[in-house]
Amino acid sequence: MRARVNGIEVAYTDEGKGSPLLFVHGFPLSRGTWEKQVMAFRPDHRVIAPDLPGLGESGVRAGSVSMSQYADDLFALMQHLNVGPVTLVGHSMGGYVALAFAKAYPEMLKGLVLVGTKGGADTPEVAAARRATAEKVRTEGSSVVVNAMAPKMLSPSNTDAAMSASVRDFMTPSKPEGAIGALLGMADRPDAGAWLGWIKVRTLVITGTDDVIMPISESEALAKAIPAAELKLIPKAGHLVAFECSEAFNGILKAWLG
Ligand code: MLT
Prior knowledge:
- By secondary structure, the protein is of the alpha/beta class.
- Helices cover about 45% and strands about 20% of the residues.
- Strand 1 and strand 2 form a beta hairpin.
- The longest helix has 17 residues.
- It is globular, with a radius of gyration of 17 Å.
- The structure holds D-malate.
């Protein structure tokens, strides 16, 4: 499905009925990463999963895209769909967006699920590397980020070729301008530590023990800083934990949703 929100054509999945779950993918991914959650949760929930602007099949916004701009786009999509408050599930960059959303629209949140993500800003070195990657994408195209990120999404011990192929499929629709906008937006994002303590909703922090992109310590720090948070670790799961170990992930989420 598609909707025009904040001047951008946003592609999204919207299935099922019940208490709404809004899933937000990471970088440079797309909503396909949540396919196993859409299947598992649509019998009991309204499950919404957009492609963030510039990624997947959504239209592109020119220039740097801040995490709060993506959060505004989620809010506009929710208004278009007449849905909310929601339980917001954000993976990695989607988690940065979820934290920006929690700051801007706390009344639209019923619960928060932070998956393989962190609250801190980029160090100057990481921000500089992101800007350099953005320049490279400008001259060489999106394959720069796909080739760099795809091999890091699953556990290093995972040899499932079909799964690796799916990971690349989730990344390939993203446009170069969209990847550049997200890279620059991530490089400039503020440290969410300033407002983690104000988050009032129940929060679940989930991470894979084999995540090579986001160390477990980041999830531990999030769970410590958010008052009503609990932490769950999924063994043998990499960065894309909800896709790679979907049964364990869905079981934990289902139990937490109660
Ligand atoms: C993601 O998976 O969204 C990215 O790895 C996040 C990041 O690069 O900080």
